[in-house]
Design goal:
Layout (H helix, E strand, L loop, with lengths): L2 H23 L9 H6 L6 H12 L3 H21 L2 H13 L1 E4 L2 E4 H10 L3 H17 L1 H19 L3 H9 L3 H14 L1 H16 L11 H6 L9 H14 L10 E4 L11 E6 L3 E5 L6 H18 L7 H5 L3 H12 L5 H8 L7 H26 L7 H16 L18 H22 L7 H11 L7 H9 L6 H5 L3
Parallel strand pairs: 3-5
Antiparallel strand pairs: 1-2, 4-5
Helix pairs in contact: 3-4, 4-8, 6-7, 10-18, 11-18, 14-16, 16-20, 18-19, 18-20, 20-22
């Protein structure tokens, strides 16, 4: 195999497919047409190509091992995903065309989710929940067949089970991560349960024991705090925050900010790296509200990481690698909303507001939820059980033990991230708390007003994905990645 030719073609495929996704999400193109691109670059993902990459990786010198592992992950991921393209297309059609009976009228499956998050009337949320649940339940047979295909294809291509494959590709010990997460669930239990009960009473008028499955999205949506996040101010707040760090969005010629309002444009902010670092797109459609602010700042963290990646880095370190790294930078910006100084300086949230405590609970809910999902997915991807009823019970038990709110068992296969992507989020949450602690100690809590802090981050962003979060932690603090900083937040 000519590795340099392979890398050039791989970069073209990634750039072209990302641009196709961007156009679709921007509302510039009604359909997402990736099949022609896969056909054009099919030689990159054949069993023979993957076998050759496995051999090259096995014989690689230590300084080349990581690049080849990232390249192998790219090829295997795409090949495995392609094996379930037919199922994915059916499921996508189902979600986009399915309707739910809501109070005598037909609404879309996605509109029912919006009602779950935003409708203050509890019975209305219940109706929307039951309608969505029936659609999800009817697709579970297809979802199970999809999982079986993923497992079989992973073993066919690499000789490894699905779980073994991603432990190898990520170079992460899932068993150790699972123990860390179980310990964290125990350490954060009392903080979580006491705040859950308090905010359930404040926002739902029921105690934690009486929360229903159709209440959870509305509770953590935090609509009562939307007054602090008006639509017209979010982009201005973002720009002023970055200026204090020495980053002027207007001068970033490699960043295209698309703020136009189109009917079919994604309502959420989204970052798409088309040519790193030369062409990065940031889609914005600010509508106001807490979740809109969190999404906007999260995606800006991704965008800055890609925009400031060094031009000298190799293809694998620009586009591929440990995605926990870019998620770390995204969380770092998203969690300005946990900094009381920033919240006062930019949002004028008064000290007597309980917003910061609510937002800390919201973050903890998400972290505990992903921890529970990982523990369930470890069972699912062991490949030892394909009984839907047993899997649903395992999913429900795992989530309810962690979250203390009802979990819908029928969502076990719907609420699933392929390729253990949730582990990237979990490791990013862990490292972000440590990185934020380091930045605070070096530059102060108002580090967002210090250009030196911006230079520090630019130095990290320049590496792209060259280093994993574990390696970055060792370089910055000379210690292993651990849960201590994120646990200390709760004190």
């Amino acid at each position: 195999m000519d590795l340099e030719l392979y890398r050039r073609r791989a970069q073209l495929y990634v750039s072209e497919s990302n641009f196709e996704r961007h156009r679709h999400m921007a509302g510039l193109k009604p359909s997402l047409d990736l099949a022609p691109l896969y056909t054009k670059y099919a030689d990159l993902f054949t069993p023979d190509s993957i076998k050759e990459l496995l051999l090259q990786h096995r014989d690689a010198a230590p300084n080349e091992e990581k690049r080849l592992r990232f390249l192998l992950a790219f090829a295997v991921d795409t090949a495995v995903d392609t094996s379930v393209r037919e199922e994915d297309e059916q499921l996508a059609r189902l979600k986009s065309t399915a309707t739910v009976d809501f109070r005598g009228q037909e609404i879309s499956f996605h509109s029912a989710a919006v009602k779950l998050a935003n409708d203050p009337e509890r019975e209305a949320r219940h109706e929307a929940y039951e309608g969505r649940r029936s659609v999800i339940r009817d697709s579970n047979g297809l979802r199970l067949e999809r999982v079986k295909k993923l497992h079989a294809r992973a073993r066919e291509l690499t000789g490894r089970s699905y779980t073994e494959l991603y432990q190898f590709l990520f170079k992460v010990n899932f068993e150790l991560l699972g123990r860390q997460l179980e310990n964290f669930l125990g350490a954060s239990e009392s903080y979580y349960t006491s705040r859950l009960d308090r905010f359930a009473k404040a926002h739902l008028d029921v105690g934690a024991a009486d929360i229903a499955a159709w209440d959870t999205m509305f509770l953590f949506r935090g609509t009562v705090y939307d007054k602090f996040f008006p639509e017209g101010r979010l982009l201005s707040i973002l720009k002023r925050t970055l200026l204090g760090m020495g980053v002027d969005l207007k001068k970033l010629k490699n960043l295209t900010i698309d703020g136009a309002d189109r009917p079919n444009k994604s309502p959420q902010a989204h970052c798409t790296p088309v040519s790193v670092p030369d062409k990065v797109y940031l889609l914005l459609r600010p509508q106001g509200g807490l979740t809109d602010c969190l999404s906007l700042f999260h995606e800006v963290g991704h965008a800055l990481h890609y925009c400031f990646t060094s031009q000298r880095e190799e293809f694998e370190y620009k586009y591929l690698g440990d995605y926990a790294v870019t998620e770390t930078y995204a969380f770092l910006f998203q969690y300005f909303t946990l900094n009381d100084d920033w919240c006062w300086d930019f949002l004028k949230i008064p000290a007597e507001s309980d917003f910061l405590e609510f937002n800390q609970l919201r973050k903890l809910y998400m972290l505990r939820r992903y921890a529970a999902k990982f523990l369930f997915e470890s069972k699912l991807h062991s490949g030892e059980c394909y009984d839907v009823a047993e899997l649903e019970q395992s999913y429900q038990r795992s989530l309810e033990n962690a979250l203390h709110v009802p979990a819908d068992p029928t969502a076990a296969l719907y609420d699933l991230d392929d390729a253990f992507y949730g582990t990237h989020f979990l490791r990013a949450w862990i490292f972000e708390a440590e990185l934020r602690q380091i930045i605070n100690s070096r530059f102060g809590k108002r580090w967002y007003s210090r250009p030196a802090a911006g230079e520090f981050l630019k130095g990290l962003w320049a590496f792209g994905h060259r280093y994993s979060v574990e390696e970055l932690g060792q370089q910055i603090r000379l210690s292993e990645l651990n849960m201590s900083p994120i646990t200390q937040e709760l004190r």
